[in-house]
Amino acid sequence: MIPPGELLVFAAAALVMVLSPGPNMVYLVSRSICQGRTAGVFSLLGVIAGFLVHVLAAAGRLTALFLAVPLAYELVRWLGAAYLLYLAWRMVRPGPGLLFEARTLPEESPRRLLLTGFLTNALNPKIAVFYLSVFPQFVSPAYGSLFTQGVLLGLVQIAVSLPVNLAIVLSASTLAARLRRRPLWLSVQRYVMGFVLGALAVRLVTGRRSA
Predict the structure, then answer these.
(1) Taking a C-beta distance cutoff of 8 angstroms, is the pair 40, 31 a contact?
(2) Residue 182 in contact with residue 59, Cβ under 8 Å?
């Protein structure tokens, strides 16, 4: 099993990531503002279901890849590091950065909200690539089943994301207004996120091997 210390590092990274405004947060805030907190909660449940799809897919792919071609698994770790560095650069490069603007959305039924939230997350290829970039840093055959480790990391990520996103849904209107009035917070967020992503990339290429 993955050591508790490793899980804490992963949980800390997951916390920084969920606090960084992105497509899921913008969608949840927009839905909550346009249709109310209940609609935001239903949308959040759909988003969480989408995370489960990515978790199972990432765990399965990592396991199959390692068993079939161990060298390819190592290649994934290096490509993952390069991808994390690319994300870090995008975070800190000059420009407008991440905008936190609520969109105008039509009202939807609870069933439709669940489906839309699910598809918004499940069909996002960036999340799948991100999972495949981060998970190899924390899994090792020495810890047991790679699939089980992947699922565990995914559940930790969801456990961190769920309460944070729920708080965002319940305070969407106030949060959106404050963030628009405080662009400095968004700038700080970008640099913090960039530092974390860069640190994860360095950890990936300088840390222990996963074989």
Answers:
(1) yes
(2) no
